[in-house]
Known about the structure:
By secondary structure, this protein is mainly beta. The chain has a domain at 197-378: Neuraminidase (6 Propeller). It is built from one helix and 24 strands. The strands form six sheets. A four-stranded antiparallel beta sheet has the order 1-2-3-4, with no helix packed on it. Strands 5-6-7-8 form a four-stranded antiparallel beta sheet, with no helix packed on it. It has a four-stranded antiparallel beta sheet with strand order 9-10-11-12, with no helix packed on it. The longest helix is centred in the first third of the chain and has 14 residues, at 2-15.
Amino acid sequence: MKYLMFIVFIFSVLTAQFNWQENGVSLRQGAHIEWQRTGTVGENGEVILVWSDTRNGGRNVYAQKVDDSGQNLWGDGGVAVVSEAGRQEDPLAISDGAGGAYIVWKDYRYELDDGDVFVQHILSDGSLDWAEEGIALSDVEGPQEFLNMCSDEIGGAFVIWIDRSTGSSIGGDVYATHLSLTGEIVDAGIGKAIITDGGDRGSISLETGGAGYANLVWSEVADTDWKVLMGQRLDLECETLWSEPEEGGKLLISSSSGDIKAPRVTHVGGDTAAIVWEDFRYNPVSPDVFLQFIDGDGNELLNNGGIGICINSGQQSVPRVKANDSTAYVVWEDFRNHFLWGDVYGQAVSIDGTILWEEDGKPISVALQKQTEPRLVV
Length: 378
């Protein structure tokens, strides 16, 4: 089923056939609309969209559910997720698998400059499941930044953030929590520290690791001065399974001749995950796209160091990956045809490492001027 959904997505892009009205469906019209928005796919083709909104003067968070025919299901202007004093912004949303969603945001009701992390669970009918003001995932003194979240595949969600509160490392420590349909939250108000080694990390990619687990990957400066690929796996209690928090994570992939940057991880099936990244082993200024499959213990399943899925001359950057049980699909920005105007290329790789599409990728969009920031949905 995931494979078919991927093909439909690509087909609809290439043929420009849309099921909703021309020029799109209005979610919210008028003044005082912010552009901080997100969304999550629910059941039966429904989508829950979330944004920050200043219709009442302050900056609050609103949500709307749209069905597969483009009809708004939660009123004309959506429903308020939070309407507290101060600013509430930068929302993220993950489906609960039951028609609702978990929504997290940065909240400035207590700290006007630094902000905290809050959450709400919205039900399938648009009503709020938890306290109207939301629940603090972390309201400790100091900034909490760079929120990320993923499904746990059993109706709950994992949330991570960078904590720069007093006493944390210079680059900030990484904290996590888990949300459940029953309202249980791991270490609510504080979160659980999962990375505290003080490493020089890049942004963290978070994705489900199968039912009840989450996988994280990131690049980090190593003793060799090259950036290596690190990872961690969490269970429902946000316990780290590959290393202790003070150890910073498990070294997954390293190169003796270049950086690893911008990694992304996705669930394949069982406890297997796929990781893609920008790889500089062949050129210090022009990256290629590499891929590796790992098991639930973080062990590499293909050649050590991964396989090059695009090592064409020119720059290939910001790869993204999604997968089903047998195949990983990758897209990226590609500058082989013009050093300023990127195109979008893609590749499919089977679980045994077989390249399924043409060498160095299949052109998905090579129109004039720029095509950027490709994304996948399965």
